[in-house]
Amino acid sequence: KFKKIKNPLSLIQLEKIVLDFNKISHHSLSLTGGEPLLQADFLKNFLPKIKKRKIKIYLETNGIYYKNLMKILPWIDIISMDIKLPSVSGESFLKEHYDFLTSAYLKELFIKIVVNSKLSLKELETAGGIIKKVNPEILVFIQPDCKEKLNIKELNIFYNILTKFVKEVRIVPQMHKFLKIN
Predict the structure, then answer these.
(1) Ordered mean pLDDT values, 10 residues apiece, the chain (182 residues)
(2) DSSP letter string, 34-84
(3) Where are the extended beta strands (E) located within the chain?
């Protein structure tokens, strides 16, 4: 069920909405895109009120704002972090990703890596090495870019590279790009 709410909301309005949250039918409260860690100062004040209700907090992040993560980490239960590889995204954040992981690895954490035909295998190995250095038990999802079709042979190469560094790797499409919500 979706409910349209006019923005902006006051903190009191948002608290009321979240406190009406049905914990039985929902796994967690998801903090997601844009980038929720850009709102860390707000979240630092908001999340303690939510946690008093024993609601799990799920953070979906690009994994580069590790200083902002530290502001809200005590109230986060689950972290979904993206690793953006330069050959795929055009962005280079491997140092930031490492710093983020060293801050987040004690939480329930998993990593998503979007792959396409431009992927540099060397970059994938570097990412695998970073994850292994922090904790090789972190679950990694390979997400094929839905804008192009990768064959199973290519995906298997990516999978085999990452399994040299981490214990568990899964290949899962970017489902949010396939689904339409009316």
Answers:
(1) 78 81 76 94 92 91 97 97 94 94 94 95 98 97 88 95 98 71 57
(2) S-GGGGHHHHHHHHHHHHTTT--EEEEE-S--HHHHHHHGGG--EEEEEE-
(3) 29-31, 57-61, 78-83, 108-115, 139-144, 169-171
For the question of whether the overall pTM of this predicted structure is more than 0.85, the answer is yes
CB 111 within 8 A of CB 140: yes
Q: Are 88 and 116 in contact (CB under 8 A)?
A: yes
**∠ at Cα 141 (64, 104), nearest 5°?**
40
91 near 84, Cβ under 8 Å?
Answer: yes
Place of tokens 């990412």: 127
**Exposed, middle or buried, 124 (CB in 10 Å: 0-12/13-18/19+)?**
buried
